[in-house]
Specification:
The protein is of the alpha/beta class. The protein contains eleven helices and 23 strands. The chain binds thymidine-5'-diphosphate and magnesium ion. The site of thymidine-5'-diphosphate has 15 residues, from helix 2 and helix 3. Belongs to the RecA family. RadA subfamily.
Length: about 450
């Protein structure tokens, strides 16, 4: 009997080594090496070798000008958010990886999209749920489609055999961590399995020109489980994220060979599947009648999309020696920095106050342009004076209290105008070369924190 061949794989980056290492020489992570079997000692059946090695064909060089330009064929789904995130529809033969935390709605999103594509023969391969469970989910979504086929299977060779019979036009794999290639001995979900099964699906996608969606799990630190190599192998990486306790979900592009990575789609989880949110700003701003202190609206950008979000702050007298600072949806260190700016430049005594900050809707905002709204929400709660209605803010705050310019200011102003705002505070440095008279909204350019304070309180 031949000896079983094993190798050690870094579970973080996929680095292969003959011996165990404490620290991965490739990615520098500690304690990530796991021994995996790499070869089966049974001979591979001939009919399993479904796909020839693409490298084996004799490839000759060509002059780029001789290559015929073929218009990229894209399949448009009824889901505009997904189309946009993919760069304008599904590209034929593309391999798309979708990551997200458990329970966020990955299976729902792709089941729903596959069901809505009426004239497309889709194969939904699930290694996680039974046919009945998927049926129950499909009933909830309540879209019927007689071109939708299910396969609950994890072995790639059985999957390819079924694919050859059905000839689907779209394949969804839920999830890549459950697949198993008979060529590799290690357990499903291990680095070598994920790498091999993805490679097999990649070959299938490229050769048959069929788009394949892979659903992938996410590890505790937020990266897609399995090696980084997985991200290199696929054409597009999407991330589905959101707060479990809120209904809003964001689909983000992390990598895209066929489009921009600054795109983003917004959904709402409802009782009957995911709903596209076409005008997110309207929901993110709470519809309130009376004015409350500590609330400010910011004109932020999420990727390429302008988004108006509500910042809520609560500043109270501290009861303990060390004042508390809590931020949800906003970087805590950034909050501390803004408080320090207010303390030093404005003479406000936040040192004796507890400060709580929240971005409404469970969003996480990284755009520095939200600074000015955070600062105004803090001041409003501190003074217990509400900000005037129909006013929003867009500006970054620097350490010396200056209001700095932000990108895409015209888009932000246009969005605020569209939502019926009457005034927007922006940085003085954003004024250059832009004609603000075309907007039906008053643009107030400010240079320092003190100026904003004087205008508002
Ligand atoms: P699911 O797609 O199973 O998540 P994932 O595949 O990312 O693990 O969806 C999980 C949640 O979505 C689950 O808690 C139930 C909820 N859900 C709804 O609220 N409405 C629906 O119509 C469906 C199908 C699911
Ligand atoms: Mg799932």
């Amino acid at each position: 009997m031949s000896k079983i061949k094993t190798a050690f794989f870094c579970q973080n980056c996929g680095y292969e080594s003959a011996k165990w290492n404490g620290k991965c020489p490739s990615c520098g992570q500690w304690n990530t090496f796991v021994e995996e079997r790499v070869q089966k000692d049974i001979p591979v059946k001939q009919e399993w070798k479904t796909i020839d090695n693409p490298l084996a064909r004799t490839q000759k060089f060509v002059n780029l000008s001789d290559v015929e330009a073929v218009a990229e064929k894209r399949l448009l789904t009824p889901d505009n958010e997904l189309n946009r995130v993919l760069g304008g529809g599904i590209v034929a033969g593309s391999l798309v990886l979708v990551g997200g935390e458990p329970g966020i709605g990955k299976s729902t999103l792709f089941l729903q999209n596959a069901l809505q594509l009426k004239d497309i023969r889709t194969l939904y391969i699930s290694g996680e749920e039974s046919e009945q469970q998927i049926k129950m989910r499909a009933d909830r979504i309540n879209v019927s489609n007689d071109q939708f086929y299910l396969l609950t299977e994890t072995s790639t060779q059985t999957i390819f055999a079924e694919i050859r019979k059905l000839q689907p036009q779209l394949v969804v794999v839920d999830s890549i961590q459950t697949l198993q290639s008979p060529f590799i001995e290690s357990a499903p979900g291990s680095v070598s399995q994920i790498r091999e099964t993805t490679a097999e699906l990649q070959r299938f996608a490229k050769e048959s020109n069929t788009p394949v969606f892979l659903i992938g799990h996410i590890t505790k630190d937020g990266s897609i489980a399995g090696p980084k190599v997985l991200e290199h192998m696929v054409d597009t990486v999407l991330q589905f994220e959101g707060d479990q306790h809120y209904a809003y979900r964001i689909l983000r592009t992390i990598k895209n060979r066929f489009g921009s990575t600054a795109e983003l789609g917004i959904y709402e989880m409802t009782g009957t599947g995911l709903r596209q949110v076409t005008n997110p700003s309207e929901i993110l701003i709470s519809q309130r009648e009376d004015l409350l202190s500590g609330v400010a609206i910011s004109a932020t950008m999420e990727g390429m999309r302008p988004l108006l979000v509500e910042v809520q702050a609560l500043v109270t007298q501290s009861v303990y020696g060390t004042p508390q600072r809590t931020a949800t949806g906003f970087d805590l260190r950034r909050l501390q920095l803004l408080l320090a700016v207010l303390e030093k430049r404005g003479g406000f005594h936040f040192g004796v106050k507890d400060v709580f900050l929240n971005i409404a809707g469970g969003l996480r905002v990284e755009d520095p342009a939200i600074d000015l709204a955070v600062l105004c929400a803090l001041l409003s709660s501190y003074e217990d004076i509400s900000l005037p209605n129909k006013v929003c803010f867009s500006g970054e705050v620097g350490l010396s209290g200056e209001i700095r310019a932000v990108n895409r200011i015209e888009q932000r102003i246009a969005e605020a105008e569209k939502l019926g705002f009457e005034k927007i505070f922006i940085s003085r440095y954003n004024k250059k070369g832009i004609d603000f008279t075309k907007f039906n909204i008053e643009v107030i350019a400010v240079g320092r924190v003190e100026e904003v304070y004087r205008q508002l309180f």
